[in-house]
Amino acid sequence: MTTTGEDHEAVLTGPWWWARRRSAALDGGLALVSALECGAEGVPFARDAGIPVSLGIVFGVVAGAVLLIRRRWPIAVVLVAIAITPAQMGFLMGIVGLYTLAACELPRRVIAALAGMSLVGTMIVTFVRVHQDMARGDLTLGNWFVPFAAVTTSLGLTAPPLLLGLYVGARRRLMESLRERADSLERELQLLAERAEERAEWARNEERTRIAREMHDVVAHRVSLMVVHAAALQAVARKDPEKAVKNAALVGDMGRQALTELREMLGVLRSTEPAKTRPRAYVPEQGASRAADDVPLAAVGAAAAAAASRAADGVPEGPCLSELDELVGQSAAAGMPVDLSVQGTARSYAAEVEQTAYRVVQEALTNVHKHAAGAQTYVRLAHRTAEIAMQVENEPPPEPASASAAGLPSGGNGLLGMRERVVALGGVFVSGPTEAGGFRVSAVIPAS
């Protein structure tokens, strides 16, 4: 590869200015052949110039050896070849020098100027030499042969190496451009693979959060009611057997409902495509982590995709507002005085809106069971033109120690999960204690 400047020096691995050892060996061999040629041509030059033959040989060897620096200083090689053209030596050096000059990344005007000088110099020397041979009688052709020989010889020694060098230089630049473009595409593919992996990780985290919220809503509410009924069952087992039987039946119903919802959720998680048919994130063979090949993007958010397909088939994805009466009735059966009021005309909403509204009320009632068992609770639902609003407010518990006595643990994620659900739909969520010592949870969700 023939290059010049600091970019060339930055990639050198061979001796001196050569990029490879074989390039140095090639230039050394060409310089040796050129030195022998110029040394042999120095003998007639010395005789014609009237100088010692040994001096002519030394001059030719030194001049021919300049070809060794053709990759480093191609202009110097061509200038030396032009300079020794009148001495009728350096033909190999002129041809190789013109090829190297044309293949270099030099301005075209510089290449054209030096090639023109070489063409004119060779033409003049050939014209003079042929004219002298005809004058001595060595050639008996007509006068037309002198300019013909001069033009033909100069073009033959200048045009082929020049054209070949231009072709090789253009091809080399094209290959470098294609290589740079390939490297750029590889970097872009690597960046896309990294972004795809980041999106996959984000999707996995979002799906874990969604599943955690669903599990929390299902388990926390149902199990909380089961614990409350079990405590009541324990208290009245001997005194009121009929009430104990009723509470036991309610505990069984709660357990079955919790198991049903858990089975539905686990069924959604398992309804993914076989691993053979899952498309994978594309990762280039070089420059990117092969670990990303083990991240099936179709498996990311598989529960959400399956739930969407279930909804498209008409299978309800989760609870809806029509089940709110049953939810309030379950809390009332557990001994909580609950008052449900609905304002506005009831209508159907998007599945995610109804499910979120239901879960907010469910989680708020669960918190009342945990922290204010037996407190008077008010559930208000308002159907508005462009939104749906809900509020769950409880008064102070009649017995502050009853919550701890029930043994209901609190993970501290209930309010956070409600806020995440409402905000994800573009709604507003507010919660906090009331002036009377109770607690209020309010949420407003856009209808569409």
Description:
- The longest helix is centred in the middle third of the chain and has 92 residues, at 145-236.
- The chain has 448 residues and is an alpha+beta fold.
- Strand 4 and strand 5 (439-446) form a beta hairpin.
- The radius of gyration is 47 Å and the shape is rod-shaped.
- Among the domains are: 6-186, no CATH class; 330-448, Histidine kinase-like ATPase, C-terminal domain (Heat Shock Protein 90).
- The protein has 13 helices and 5 strands.
- It has a 5-stranded mixed beta sheet, covered by helices on one side.
- Mean pLDDT is 78; it is low at 1-10, 273-316 and 401-405.
- 62% of the residues lie in helices and 8% in strands.
Order of helices and strands: HHHHHHHHHHEHEEHHEE
User: Percent range for helical residues?
Assistant: 55-70%
| Rg computed from alpha carbons, rounded to a whole number of angstroms | 47 Å
Q: Which stretches are poorly predicted, pLDDT < 50 over at least 5 residues?
A: 1-10, 273-316, 401-405
Strand order of the largest sheet: 1-2-3-5-4
The end-to-end distance, rounded to whole angstroms, is 66 Å
Q: Please, what is the oligomeric state?
A: single chain
What's the number of helices?
13
Q: In what range is the share of β-strand residues? A: 5-15%
Query: Which overall shape is indicated by the principal axes computed on the Cα atoms?
Result: rod-shaped
Structural class label: alpha+beta
Main beta-sheet strand count, sense and barrel state: 5 strands, mixed
Number of strands: 5
Mean pLDDT: 78
